[in-house]
């Protein structure tokens, strides 16, 4: 099939379909491996301790340190070429990941997580900065619905599989690495289908200071208060999601859902429930944002998501393993996924449309920097509230959600700037 270019419907846009395939498989691999490490960190490797926050922090640090350079690289060179190179590196990184699982080495697992963070730090600005070049502005909302649906589905499927795999494989977890490497190869083949995208600023000199260009980009974003408010709101969304992910794993404890080590697949079913609802929310988001004012859709999505997180605090004080706590958790996570996707899709589409060509790579690198700075903070948040203050996992995620919602409510006048062009 030849690529008909940006004017083609999404279903016949070869570049876009190749991008979706590459993104889906990459997100699936990242989250499959990361969730295995998180489950091992939640008690298996460290009985009586929960070191998930450290794993989250290690994965996030490369985004914080390399975000500025990654943005400049994405403007200096072809975004499609960078995506191909990153998919090649992914194959090698996951091969190392297989070795780390074979050794059951905590330092080696953390090293692989850091390399995965480096890979994603450079892939991210090309991914979101290049999408307007692949589909055009009028199809951005629909394209983001598809990308959000497939990406979140990959994230949660990747996060759901480790439970059953760990229950079955026990001491042979390295076998999980084999399909990961195969999927990385398939992801490379999909990336090769993306038509060559021109370098937007081939004259740009790439600085060695990782924060130099980043500071200028953030300063330019701050000059547009509405846009910057949306960027911070998106970062708080990822912060909130990071705490929620750790809290779901933490709820397996005896005081809440009482899921023993040999039944980790029950945690996976919780994540599967969330993944199904994310698909539904992603499909609903575009028609809702087209029919109603997008800013209202965004606030409804955020409010519904946080309300479901707050409801999780009933597990323990009001509901236990014998009184429907697990079923209640499933319902809450269905709601977090549905409303979270309704929030995410229009916000992400707006960011892509609002940033001018020639600056998207650097702007999305800055956006990624903030997103992963906040994901890093989600690890610290969980370590402090759960590990030091000994708060229940559900209270950790409820507090994070309320922080996000309070910020969005304060910035609601800026959110009114979220609008779209329609085909």
Structure description:
This protein is an all-alpha fold and 423 residues long. It has one domain: Up-down Bundle (Growth Hormone, Chain: A), CATH 1.20.1250.20. The chain is built from 15 helices and no strands. It has helices at residues 14-44, 52-76, 79-103, 106-135, 140-160, 162-169, 177-191, 212-222, 225-250, 265-291, 294-311, 325-354, 360-388, 393-410, 412-415. α1 runs antiparallel to α4 and α8 (212-222) crosses α13 (360-388). The radius of gyration is 20 Å and the shape is globular. The mean pLDDT is 87.
CATH topology-level name: Growth Hormone, Chain: A
Elements, N to C (H/E): HHHHHHHHHHHHHHH
Beta strands, count: 0
The CA-CA distance between the termini, in Å, is 23 Å
Helix/strand class = mainly alpha
Report the uncertain regions. Answer: none
Helicity, as a percent range: over 70%
User: Biggest sheet, open or closed, and with what strands and sense?
Assistant: none
Shape field:
globular
Oligomer: single chain
Question: What would the keywords be for this entry?
Answer:
single chain; 423 residues; mainly alpha; Growth Hormone, Chain: A; 75% helix
Topology at a glance:
Layout: H1 14-44, H2 52-76, H3 79-103, H4 106-135, H5 140-160, H6 162-169, H7 177-191, H8 212-222, H9 225-250, H10 265-291, H11 294-311, H12 325-354, H13 360-388, H14 393-410, H15 412-415
